[in-house]
């Protein structure tokens, strides 16, 4: 079933007669659950107005590179980072050439250079322009860089010619775009992911916890489900909704998280949860009152919690185990010691001392650590990072 639920689709519209179809395309993308933002070239505005596309998308339309108002809102760099996919439809021969050259001479091409999300194109042009060697060479270059090309179709054209160059129909494009998110990399596999914080009760009112929001683990669960895995998400308390096609198991304490993890069969186990290392030795039955003469201090005896991921990795039939490492210094060396000590297959290390990534942020940057080496993945949205991590985990697993 095609779905773009919760996907950020940045739609680029360039100046061909097929631009009128972008109105219907927006409607189809939104029908599949996408959040659509539009960026238009100046030529595109000759064929359809930004106001029309703003009304249909429900978001401001971006047209100028140096628009102070737009920059005050979501600037073009933020827009590039917001996107889960950059889809240009229609994409003219001129724009294909400018993208191939890496030009940044207007808002759309500037965003294309800044955007790390996948690029998809729906070419639309006269049949002779389509078959011209320059167009085909430019397109081959973009495909070689990873761009996906949808269509064009063959048929009668506005100029009276007949042949290839017609932009594919919006309904077909929307379905093809949704299929971009189902890679099949983990098809047939059981993936179990822990996410979020744990809460260790002190008394019926108070608990020990941490700043984990669950965003990283939920993004991984979404990416694993999209890659075709049967995905179970063992989640501590969060404010997040369960991603589509993911089975969520809600837990509160580290012990509950361990029990749930041991009850799930996994081919791949990913520990993204921020598990409390300690819990109060005893849970008071009633709310703890201040001691008699208030001395200003009180003592809480803590005992160690079970190490969930180390327990999973110690099983004789252990799954492929991926751990995270939340460090504030010596990130790589501390993370590598966890790889060895906990007998993990991969460790994803993140510097949680930074405000712009890690706990509760929408973005993250990590160093992927294996027995054979390490690789830094620069800052991006946790969902984009999750897609990249799934690709690497799938390769390492296979
Ligand atoms: O949830 P977000 O707000 O998106 O933030 C993401 C994150 C920062 C929480 C995430 O990226 C992250 O780093 N998660 C791991 C946090 C953590 O507990 O790291 P650690 O270095 O203390 O633990 C190392 C590994 O052992 C982790 O895989 C952890 O899940 C696991 N662990 C730790 C303790 C324990 N008792 N049991 C465990 O399984």
Automatic annotation (TrEMBL):
Origin organism lineage: Bacteria, Pseudomonadati, Pseudomonadota, Gammaproteobacteria, Cellvibrionales
Domain Flavoprotein: 7-170
EC number, UniProt record: 4.1.1.36, 6.3.2.5
Cofactor notes: Binds 1 FMN per subunit.
Domain DNA/pantothenate metabolism flavoprotein C-terminal, chain residue ranges per copy: 186-394
Homology family: In the N-terminal section; belongs to the HFCD (homo-oligomeric flavin containing Cys decarboxylase) superfamily. In the C-terminal section; belongs to the PPC synthetase family.
Record keyword Transmembrane helix present: no
Membrane spanning residue stretches: none
Metabolic or biological pathway, per its Swiss-Prot or TrEMBL entry: Cofactor biosynthesis; coenzyme A biosynthesis; CoA from (R)-pantothenate: step 2/5; Cofactor biosynthesis; coenzyme A biosynthesis; CoA from (R)-pantothenate: step 3/5
Protein name: Coenzyme A biosynthesis bifunctional protein CoaBC
Cofactor section: FMN; Mg(2+)
Region (Phosphopantothenate--cysteine ligase): 191-398
Function: Catalyzes two steps in the biosynthesis of coenzyme A. In the first step cysteine is conjugated to 4'-phosphopantothenate to form 4-phosphopantothenoylcysteine, in the latter compound is decarboxylated to form 4'-phosphopantotheine.
Organism: Simiduia curdlanivorans
